Amino acid sequence: MKSETPPAAVSTGPAVPTELAPPPPLVPLLPPSRIRFSSSHRGARLARLLCGQQLDEWGIPRSTSASAVITAVVAELAANAATHGRTPGRDFEVRMSLAAELVRVEVIDTRPDRLPRAPGIAPRPPVFSTSGRGLLLVAAYADRWGWGVRDPYTKVVWAEVLHQA
């Protein structure tokens, strides 16, 4: 994201976001992965599957806990984009970047008017509900995460997960 990007909410773990800033600049080791998916449950599922494949190609095997954590974060953010960020006929995009010790995931959708509510601010879902915990999982798994409005038509929700090279 460029410096002229509007502020984004940031969290450094499971706490509520405490500052406004775009994600810090990242120097990727390899070219980032960018794929567009249909805003559907199938698109979210495909995003999760291709995330595991991309991590494997980058040398983070599917059998590692880092791969499992990053894949879970992608799954939750993609599911949120397909469910809450959906505009009929518009796709969402998943970008993944590998840096020396972290992987950044960015999910861009077409609903900048529907910003996520941080865990602790959002009401807790009913105990037996099967939805409503996606950002709780992202907050638990990611080392940093946040969101921001990129332009009048899109928003980005991003997360960074540390891994051992």
Quick summary of this structure?
Residues 49-147 form the Histidine kinase/HSP90-like ATPase domain. It contains three helices and seven strands, in the order βββααββαββ.
Structure description:
The protein has 165 residues and is α+β, with helices and mostly antiparallel strands. The chain has one domain (8-118, 145-162): 2-Layer Sandwich (Heat Shock Protein 90), CATH 3.30.565. It has helices at 41-57, 65-83, 134-141; strands spanning 8-11, 19-20, 33-38, 91-98, 102-109, 144-151, 154-162. It has a seven-stranded antiparallel β-sheet, covered by helices on one side. Strand 6 (144-151) and strand 7 (154-162) form a beta hairpin. The radius of gyration is 15 Å and the shape is globular. Keywords: ATP-binding, Kinase, Nucleotide-binding, Serine/threonine-protein kinase, Transferase. Residues 1-25 are annotated as: Disordered. Residues 49-147 form the Histidine kinase/HSP90-like ATPase domain. Pfam families: HATPase_c_2 (PF13581).
Describe this protein with a few key phrases.
27% helix; 7 strands; 165 residues; transferase; 3 helices; HATPase_C_sf; kinase; alpha+beta; ATP binding; Heat Shock Protein 90; seven-stranded antiparallel beta sheet
